[in-house]
Design brief:
mainly beta, eight-stranded antiparallel beta sheet, five-stranded mixed beta sheet, about 15% helix
């Protein structure tokens, strides 16, 4: 009987050993999935008018992602699960030269939860790109075309993952009687079960633990001794790898509902009840103490747990089916220490120093940006004389910094801005008046007999000034005379007539002399100012043209004080900050001001300053013209001056008044035209 028992044990050991050595070996394909792949090299091959680019990534599993961006035209290829590494340098990227490729950039786009390496190709319009992948890497085929840039993934070249090996499960068998014949039947005892299907390539997934990479051997146990499944509360937010602390604000509870009513109960006993309800193991710190009263009706047990812990000033961690309860400050302190430990591990390693001379960017400006990228051990020293950066940091961060510098150190596009300021003034004036002579002098002299004579206001014989004589008075026998002047200079007459018409009626009894005056004036003034300047994208530029007007000021404000001379600006000034958008349009912050001296209006000999200004932000297409603003002012004046009552007489009323009509138009227009200067 002992011999049969020994033989049975030996046979069973042989079966298990065979299973372990033959079936439990890790699949090479699964090991390749677990390995971290790295980009090793890049190469380009010309294919007539097109090109073929190959990225060597041995062990590539995930399918690359492809997208197209515009302005400039770019094709972006993402390689999930691939480290950029240091094998491909900037010099290698510069060798990816082809008429279809304007620029190539390579960077570590992401590090967690899995690394992603990104390749960006700036291509000419119309380029067609076909991306295919294999276990050896990624291939890009570029061909010229027309229209917009297009890129697609070749699904026929998608890498295939070998099916995982089967799982061997040894089922339980009835006990073998020692007295019964020895019979070893392996086939009925071994049940082959396939593993669950892996997630699709490119879909979100979590890294498998190391033990899951090998074939799983599951030995069935009797139902009575199986461990019950732990009921875990549903969390709306992912828990931290080191646990979860109360206070993060759970909003959804899915635990089984309980009804409980306890008074003056030890919180430690109550937590044991909740742990049993949730099928969790429980660990409580010694500081967890106190008696409380609890009453809940049909409430999820995980919500009861949170409310009770919050009321007691406690926190919790749930990890791998173990519930740990402790003081809140203790859990927070442990979390901070874990973070510090993670940071310390991340900062470990030997530092690397590189130098990067810059061509277009200023080292002082790039240094400010790098301060947020460098690790705590890193530093960036600048040399203004050679415009060079000296960078020291961990090797894994050096690659990211180098790619960032390459992105920043590029030639900035320039914009030419031309402004036209058009100012037009139009004046029209018309005057009519009558001048009545008052004396024999000046332009109103009356000539008699071909010579100028002293003519009385009223005389017994002509010529004489406006008047009437020769009326006999029966009582005295003497003559009666009357004279008049119905208008004076500046009242019925105009100051500077363009033309005059002399009307005279003279006799020995009656004399009338008048001058009809008329004037019409037209004037048009057009002023065009056209400032023009060139500036870089997102850089403010200013152009100014004008003069300084001096004006005297008296110190102390009292007479006899010292006289000083101050100056006021009368300038044409254009301030502009352009911004080129991805669509090729231009956003401009503009301020245009025109100030000029008006010498027609002076104060103590100092002219006043006329100012016209506009400040706005506009969006204009490249080479287009926008009207920033326009001002149109019209002034109309109608004025009449004359002798009261007489000026309103019908027919002859115009002899006793002057009429003055004036109209003036002022128009101001501002045009702006931006143009992108292409090298």
């Amino acid at each position: 009987m002992n011999a049969r028992l020994s033989s049975l044990l030996v046979a069973g050991g042989v079966v298990l050993a065979g299973i372990h050595t033959g079936s439990l070996q890790a699949s090479p394909t699964m090991e390749a999935v677990a390995q971290r792949v790295t980009l090793l090299s890049t190469s380009i091959e010309s294919t007539g008018t097109g090109a073929k680019i190959f990225l060597r990534v041995p062990g590539l599993v995930a399918q690359p992602g492809v997208q197209v961006l515009t302005n400039p035209h770019r094709v972006v290829v993402d390689l999930p699960g691939v480290d950029r590494g240091t094998a491909v340098s900037r010099k290698d990227l510069a060798q990816l030269a082809h008429p279809l490729i304007q620029k190539a950039r390579l960077a570590q786009f992401a590090m967690s939860p899995k690394p992603v390496t990104r390749l960006v190709l700036e291509v000419v319009p119309g380029t067609q790109v076909l991306v295919s992948s294999s276990p050896e890497g990624v291939q890009l085929i570029l061909t010229p075309g027309e229209g917009r840039v297009q890129a697609r993934l070749d699904e026929s070249m998608r890498p295939q993952i070998a099916p995982p090996p089967p799982v061997l499960e040894i089922a339980s068998r009835p006990p073998v009687s020692i007295d019964s014949p020895i019979s070893i039947a392996v086939s009925p005892a071994v049940v082959i079960k396939p593993l669950a299907a892996l997630p699709a390539v490119g879909s979100p997934f979590q890294s498998l633990p190391p033990l899951a990479l090998a074939t799983t051997l599951t030995v069935a146990v009797p139902e009575a001794v199986q461990t019950p499944e732990v009921e875990k509360p549903h969390l709306t937010t992912p828990s931290h790898a080191g646990g979860r602390t109360l206070g993060e604000g759970l909003t959804n509870y899915s635990g089984s509902k309980i009804t409980i009513d306890l008074q003056n109960t030890d919180i430690r006993d109550f937590l044991r009840i909740l742990a049993d309800t949730g099928k969790l193991n429980l660990v409580m710190d010694p500081d967890v103490q106190g008696n409380f009263g609890f009453k809940f009706t049909d409430t999820p047990w995980d919500q009861v747990l949170d409310v009770v812990l919050k009321n007691a000033g406690l926190g919790k961690e749930i990890q791998n089916g173990v519930l740990r309860v402790a003081k809140m400050d203790k859990l927070q302190k442990e979390e901070e220490e874990r973070k510090k430990l993670d940071e310390t591990k991340a900062l470990g390693g030997q530092l690397q120093t590189i130098t990067r001379p810059l061509s277009y960017a200023k080292v002082s400006e790039v240094q400010k940006i790098l301060k947020d990228i460098l690790t705590k051990r890193g530093s960036a020293i600048l040399d203004d004389r050679t415009n060079t950066l000296i960078i020291t940091d961990l090797p894994r961060n050096i690659t990211v910094i180098d790619d960032l510098i390459q992105t920043l150190d590029i030639q900035i596009q320039q914009v030419q801005i031309e402004a036209r300021i058009v100012e037009a003034n139009k004046n029209w004036q018309q005057q009519f008046g009558v001048k009545w002579p008052e004396s024999n002098s000046g332009n109103a002299s009356i000539s008699g007999g071909g010579t100028s004579t002293t003519t009385p206001w009223v005389g017994s014989s002509a010529p004489f000034w406006n008047g009437a004589t020769g009326f006999n008075s029966p009582a005295s026998g003497q003559q009666a005379a009357v004279a008049w002047s119905p208008g004076v200079d500046g009242s019925t007459s105009i100051a500077a007539p363009a033309g005059e018409l002399w009307l005279s009626f003279i006799s020995n009894k009656f004399s009338i002399n008048a001058i009809l005056q008329a004037m019409e004036q037209n004037g048009t003034i057009k002023i065009v100012s056209s400032p023009k300047l060139v500036t870089q994208n997102n850089k403010k530029a200013t152009i100014l043209s004008g003069q300084k007007i001096p004006y005297p000021t008296q110190q102390g404000g009292a007479q006899g004080g010292a006289i000083t001379v101050a100056f006021i600006d009368a300038n044409l000034q254009l301030d502009v900050t352009p911004q080129i958008t991805n669509e090729g349009t231009i956003i401009m912050d503009l301020k245009v001001e025109k100030a000029s001296a008006d010498f027609t209006q002076t104060v103590n000999g100092t002219p006043t300053i006329d100012r016209k200004s506009i400040e706005t932000q506009v969006l204009v297409r490249d080479g287009g013209t926008a009207v920033l603003g326009g001002v149109y002012v019209t002034n109309s004046t109608l004025q009449s001056t004359g002798v009261p009552f007489l000026m309103n007489l019908p027919v002859i009323g115009f002899l006793f008044r002057n009429n003055n009509k004036q109209e003036s138009n002022t128009e101001l227009l501002i045009f702006i035209t931006p143009r992108i200067l292409r090298q």
